[in-house]
Amino acid sequence: MSWIKRRETKTVWVGKVPIGSSHPIAVQSMTSTFTEDVPTTVAQIKELEKVGCEIVRVAVPSIDAARALRKIKEKVNIPLIADIHFDYKLALLSIEEGADCIRINPGNIGELWKVKEIVNLAGQKGISIRIGVNSGSLPKELLKKYGYPVPKALAEAALNYMKLFEDWGFTNMKFSLKGSDVKTTVIANELFAESSPYPLHIGITEAGTLLSGAVKSAVGIGILLYKGIGDTLRVSLTANPKEEVKVAYKILKALNLRERGVEVISCPTCGRCLVNVEELAKEVEERLEHIKKPLKVAVMGCAVNGPGEAKFADVGIAGAGGYFILFVKGKVIGKLSQEEALDRLVEEVEKLAGEEVGGV
Question: Is residue 100 within 8 Å of 129, Cβ to Cβ?
Fold first, then answer.
């Protein structure tokens, strides 16, 4: 159980996934494929599903991309969000093609009547809208008022859109206020959360490559989650989208907000280390990424860090000079060669997880 008290929000549905404070914080990602390339896009979404992605967003920059949505949706198991910029007609076509949610920045759609057409059709079809606000799409009057996309400007824009959509009779919405700067993003979300009952999608946009982006995202998203803010999230990385999902779950797990998958514990290595722990730990993570059950798996470089310091791991191996010690629940159950150690480790983990060896 987490010690964090989440901000109370209403529930909004994205396909079959409920978003809001009464439900687990949902993890989402975005494809990096050309959406109109249906086989490639479907293959990437299925890879994302394997590592726990619960909602996926796809870019819709063209008519061909919008028309591909129905074909994609037929072949995947998680809801599709259509990401729309500039052209309201693409949003309308995406809704007709079965998108579970439309993501728009009203500030770059143009005249309000175009935004209203999107809202009206979404209401008719019973799908949700994610309203995005960022520094690049602020209304001109707010940029003139504040001189720069400061947190107050982002929050005010989002609250104005909230009021506008409500005036149009539409409440099936969630919001995202994002920037590449952690402080701006955190403060903007805090300001919005104080005055809105709607769910928030959180993240740090344009966070960077795998290492720097993961750190920056962990700081920004972690601060918001600690404050009880955030109902769905994406870790934006310049990396394989699967890494976004993995990092997201690690952030949620660190705050006891979600428990999913294997946590690999590995020693930092020292002069006693007799094996390449870094390579072993990476391979273990890759081979166990399909496991859904939360388990602790240890990869240690010597007997000192084996069942001793890692005794609370569910399963582990430790290099011991020419062979490996295999231990389960703190008890040594065998000595193995390096060639068989990884296979046995995976086998023991899959047993505990109730998975078949080599599961998907």
Answer: no
Contact predicate 296/312, CB 8 Å: yes
Distance in Å from the first CA to the final CA of the chain: 28
Kindly give the pairing relationship between strand 315-319 and strand 295-300: parallel
Q: Calculate the alpha carbon distances from 83 to 25, 87, 244, 287 in Å.
A: 21, 11, 18, 32
Q: Helix (H, G, I), strand (E, B), or coil: what is residue 178?
A: strand
Closest CA to 127 of 87, 99, 85: 99
**Alpha helices of the chain — where are they, by DSSP H?**
38-50, 63-75, 88-96, 106-109, 112-125, 140-146, 151-167, 182-195, 210-226, 241-254, 277-287, 338-353
Check whether domain 12-254 has CATH 3.20.20.20, yes or no: yes
pTM (2 decimals)? 0.89
- Which tokens go with 351? 């047993």
For residue 354, the SS3 value is coil
Q: How far is CA 207 from CA 87, 88, 130, 211, 234, in A?
A: 26, 28, 20, 10, 11
Q: How many C-beta neighbours within 10 Å does residue 308 have?
A: 13
pLDDT tens readout for residues 59-81: 999 999 999 999 999 999 999 99
Asked if residues 201 and 211 have their Cβ atoms less than 8 Å apart, the reply is no
Into which CATH architecture does domain 262-353 fall? 2-Layer Sandwich (3.30)
CA-closest candidate to residue 154, choices 169, 168, 167, 136 = 136
Q: In 3D, which of 219, 157, 167, 216 has the Cα closest to residue 191?
A: 157
Domain spans of the chain, in order of start: 12-254, 262-353
Rounded Cα distance between 68 and 343, Å, is: 41
Q: How far apart are CA 237 and CA 209, in angstroms?
A: 6
Q: Which two tokens stand for residue 160?
A: 């104005």
Contact 331/269 with Cβ under 8 angstroms?
no
pLDDT tens for residues 14-28?
999 999 999 999 999
pLDDT in tens, 129-150: 999 998 777 888 998 999 888 9
Residues composing the chain: 360
Asked whether 15 and 79 are in contact (CB, 8 A), the reply is: yes
